Amino acid sequence: DAIEDIERHSFPRPWPRASFEAELVREHAHLVVVHVPHVVAFSNFWVVVGELHIHSIATHPDHRRGGIGARLVEHMIDVARAAACTLATLEVRCGNAPAIALYERAGFRTVTVRARYYQDNHEDARVMTREL
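-> structure tokens emitted (132 positions)
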């Protein structure tokens, strides 16, 4: 329930519970939850074929701007390096300036833009990568 709440506060088209449940049974999928003492943030990512793919990072609005997102990115990179990954990738809405800034601080760079990538409003997506 807490992850769904954070998801609704964070994304214009939130994942349904069933999508998160499906992630939990995928061998290459990871879901990290931050709780202090209740759930305040999460990250969802895959480690597969030598690559980290970040699906999402979200923090409850009451806990944003405190470094939780940066720590989640660091954790995902640590997991990926331990699995011998050499590249990290993600897509982010071009209008999501806070997320873009977070990823740039973590060393990600935009490699291309996918036009009309998001189905809900046809917003473009930046494809960002970082070597590990």
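The chain has one domain: 2-131.
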